[in-house]
Amino acid sequence: MQENNSSVDIASINEKIERESAFVDILSSEMKKVIVGQKHMVERLLIGLLGQGHILLEGVPGLAKTLAINTLSQAVHGSFSRIQFTPDLLPADVVGTLIFNMKENDFSIKKGPIFANFVLADEINRAPAKVQSALLEAMQEKQVTIGEETFVLDRPFLVMATQNPVEQEGTYPLPEAQVDRFMLKTVIKYPEMADEQMIIRANLKGSFEKVNPVVSLEQIARAQQAVREVYMDEKIEKYILDIVFATRFPEKYRLESLKPLINFGASPRGSINLATAAKCYAFIKRRGYVVPEDVRAIVHDVLRHRIGITYEAEAENVTSEDIINKIVNEIEVP
Q: How are beta strands 158-163 and 118-122 bridged, if at all?
């Protein structure tokens, strides 16, 4: 009897998710007007938006990172701001400051660029630690204090930070504890040749299609709630925990060879974000329940920045990606 009940529940959840996720295809096709290829990046942006997380993008310049989040903000009818991180940036340049108003003989508040639905933090590793922590605090608390007043940030609130992996000079790498606050770290590759040909043509013509607002902020808020209702079986939860625990205690999962390569494993944030991202991925695929493939599709983006590798691993040219691959191939799929 119980089994029948749960199957009815899943059917109704499935129906609801199918209804609530109808906008995903419309949003994707609207973004495709401007973003050629880069399906992986667009999908990850949607996962960050639906999972109420933030994204760290790594890729060489010129791969449409700024364009992607700007296009998303236009298609969702949200506000967009861009902060170019430089070594002389101050926390007040990000969150805002108090300005003395001579007319009224009093201080007035000037809000910073963090007050937007979509914030692009360009080259986050170029700014000093003080500025990075001001941004990361706003990301975590979803509020900002200026003077003695506290302001709650607009919802939805998505920060997409980029870092250039090529240049190391004059950069301030993000500490592990801060990188952990990003739900996903997505590595962007060069476009395919056919896609790049289309990019050249569109740029030479100088005629990009106009992006129309096709989704409201209310729809996004509803979708964020609906994502929480996506069904996740206990077996999937156990699968997620096995993957995360294997990064901490590889020897318990017949992965003794990884022990000297891992400095530290993923934190509980890793487990939470892997479960949330898997639900978001199922939602984007218009399904009301999570399957192991959802976890496998998103596991690299969630864990690649949460595993610390040892000097030994670096010497052997082993990356956190390689470690994740070995773990995912070893852990039994439910």
A: parallel
Candidates 131, 106, 111, 108; CA nearest to 121 is 131
- Per mean pLDDT, which range of 116-130, 166-180, 234-248 is the poorest? 166-180
Which CATH number among 3.40.50.300, 3.40.50.2000, 3.40.50.1970, 3.30.1050.10 corresponds to the domain 33-208?
Answer: 3.40.50.300
pLDDT at residue 5 tops 60: no
Sign of CA dihedral 8, 13, 15, 16: positive
Please name the residue that has the structure tokens 């808020």. 221
Where along the chain do the CATH 3.40.50.300 domains lie? 33-208
| % of the chain surpassing 90 pLDDT | 19
Looking at domain 230-330, its CATH class is: mainly alpha
HEC assignment per residue over 32-47: HCCCCCCHHHHHHHHH
Q: Which residue has the higher pLDDT, 101 or 248?
A: 248
Q: Which residue has the tokens 């920060």?
A: 159
3-state secondary structure of 20: helix
